[in-house]
Amino acid sequence: MLVKKSYLAQGILLAGAVVLNCSTAQAVPVAMSDDPLNMFNTWTIMANDDGFVGPGSGGQAFDAEYLFYKVDAGKLSIGLQTGFNISDGKQNYYGQRYDAGDLFLSFDGNNSSYEYAFDIGNVTEGYWDFGNDAIDAVAAGLYKVTTENNDIYYTDSGPFAMQDGVLIQGVGNGAFTSTGIEGDSFWRTFSFDLAALGINDTSGLGATWTMSCGNDNINGTAPVPEPATMLLFGTGLLGLVGIKQRNKKKQA
């Protein structure tokens, strides 16, 4: 009896160790450090660029810090944390005004292009055409992007804003956004129904955001389990079965 319990315990530990070794590949909320804001404690990190500003400069005022996401009752929420004033959507720096861009989203696993954008409805000015109302204000909400606007100084940080698009779900009609500030970081959340896109999960989810100068940008993808994870877990379970079978033979 003692031998049986011992082998069973070894098998459970083996299977558990396999799962723990693969836990970093699973799409579960990660442990928060002091850097992400408290409100994102239960969210999953998509990107962590805190403390690094590039390709431009400007320090904390232009630091695109984190992207988060969570799904609750079929509603996808994306969280953005940055030193840029995304509450007002505008940042004044040495007498120059810079505008926050739109949050671009993709669900096809190809982050070289983005099919959707969440526009918060503010008037957005680019870098070179500032003052010419090059980007028209539209109703806040989730859009299918028709044309992008990349009027920024560091063009590699784009896309910057949606030029034209088709409204899928408006704020107040299924979609919503909220914003605030904590310490020297601003935050904004963007939420909408996955069903509005005809999908039910976050497979292939990618997001990107920048400001009108493009001094910094942030992009990330939702983590998903690697195929090897389930294979290794299955291997651990097979090992457990083998141990139990050998134990039965010994008892016989």
Please tell me about this protein's structure.
The protein has helices spanning 2-21, 227-251; strands at residues 44-48, 64-72, 75-82, 90-93, 96-99, 103-106, 116-119, 141-149, 161-170, 176-182, 185-193, 206-210, 217-221. It is an alpha+beta fold. The protein folds into two domains: 2-21 and 228-251; 43-224. A hairpin with a 2-residue loop joins strand 4 (90-93) and strand 5 (96-99). The radius of gyration is 23 Å and the shape is globular. The chain starts with a helix and ends with a helix.
What integer is the average pLDDT? 79
Amino- and carboxy-terminal Cα gap: 13 Å
Sketch the major β-sheet: 6 strands, antiparallel
Which strand order do you get reading across the main beta sheet? 9-8-7-6-12-13
Which range best describes the helical content: under 10%, 10-25%, 25-40%, 40-55%, 55-70% or over 70%?
10-25%
The secondary structure category is: alpha+beta
Q: How many distinct beta strands?
A: 13
The whole-angstrom Rg is: 23 Å
The gross shape turns out to be: globular
The topology string of helices and strands comes to HEEEEEEEEEEEEEH
Tally of separate domains: 2
Strand content: 25-35%
Number of helical elements: 2
- Low-confidence blocks of residues: 1-34, 229-233
